[in-house]
């Protein structure tokens, strides 16, 4: 029967695809005996965490791999969008998350390692927009990338003011919406935004001074295993800070030492 | 806006590496969905007691809730109830979710296809000594298939693109590869447009296949 033949051809194609699809999906599994830690990450973009030539690169990638190299683990990256990162953490499909803001609210759910850097927040507006003061700008519509904690940093820095936040699923549309003036401002991490403006030519400029202080750390489940991991990670962080590895990585990606900076 | 056409063309080979994953998700899900859809449609048409009620709840649930919610329930929710399912890969979970979701839509399309063939034809076939199965296979289904193909094609084209939801649970496919490539140099528009062109080309290719098939099964209707 003709239909049957057609179905068989489809099935054959599917089987073929299953073979190659399967390979593509499992490429992360190495054959080594090293202990594996699964780290969830959502594409934050250059220079924090990005994909180039088929590899993950960036500051958070380097720091986390350095930490776990120190501890003798192999890092297995699990790349999903923000919803997936949160759900994977909750259900234990990943052990920890890269570039995760350590906030008191999140602290009710997870325990944190020591921060591996502190982020300050800035407000940016469109490059071609006329001069505007920081105080004026923060009264406008402010874009927020989902999963970032910078709006809270802003509200904490100015507790008496009402803000008009607009949340986006990811930063990509924000660049063009704020760049073109549909929205007034973008509240984001100083380091990542400065690096992107300077090196990738985003159509934005920073207005006023950086504010707030947002520690970024590795979250772990509140259980014995998580506590043990935090202890190990903190030990490794201590070593990496002392021997200058973290400062070096920070210089490499941001052109400044975030550790020195956050002491001030 | 400074649009970099060169970059857009440059990344197409990088994107095409993930085309097999998109096709794998879409085609395998579609095949499973067609099988489930046919079973559901037969239940709906024959009004088999008990099964009919189950089928109705199934269709109502999978058409009535967002595919993303179903995906999350299957990948993160089910292993909470059945710890054995924790070993399920993300791609497998995505295929299960897409199959179940799509089958609910297909069931309605197939039901309409079956009902578009006049009941008298099956009755006539049975009256000349064919069994019910023979009447379905030889008379009703070939006509129903012809009627259901255009709508089924729509669903499949939709599925190809919706398979990008799988990124939520960590499957990198065409669209998410575009997003990820753009994280390096923030050229999102170039990446998204390149992705769009690949999906479009894919749809055109599929459309040719469907036209060829429609032409084939339409032969008896042309004089």
Describe the structure.
The complex is a heterodimer of chains A (264) and B (223). With 264 residues, chain A is an alpha/beta fold. Chain A has two domains: 35-116 and 218-256, Periplasmic binding protein-like II (D-Maltodextrin-Binding Protein, domain 2, 3-Layer(aba) Sandwich); 118-214, Periplasmic binding protein-like II (D-Maltodextrin-Binding Protein, domain 2, 3-Layer(aba) Sandwich). Chain A is built from eleven helices and 13 strands. In chain A, the strands form four sheets. A six-stranded mixed beta sheet of chain A has the order 6-12-8-11-9-10. Chain A has a three-stranded parallel beta sheet with strand order 4-1-5. In chain A, strands 2-3 form a two-stranded antiparallel sheet. In chain A, a hairpin with a 2-residue loop joins strand 2 (50-52) and strand 3. In chain A, helix 2 (59-70) packs across helix 9 (224-242) and helix 2 runs antiparallel to helix 10 (245-254). The longest helix of chain A is centred in the N-terminal third of the chain and has 25 residues, at 2-26. Chain A is globular, with a radius of gyration of 21 Å. In chain A, 42% of the residues are buried. Residues 20-31 of chain A have low confidence and may be disordered. By secondary structure, chain B is an all-alpha fold. Chain B folds into two domains: 1-18 and 172-223; 22-166, MetI-like fold. Helix content of chain B is 79%, strand content 0%. Chain B is built from nine helices and no strands. Chain B has helices at 5-16, 19-46, 51-64, 67-81, 90-115, 119-127, 132-162, 174-185, 188-217. The longest helix of chain B has 31 residues, at 132-162. Chain B is flat, with a radius of gyration of 21 Å. The model of chain B has no long low-confidence stretch (mean pLDDT 93). Chains A and B meet through helix 1, strand 2, helix 3 and helix 7 of A and helix 2, helix 4, helix 8 and helix 9 of B.
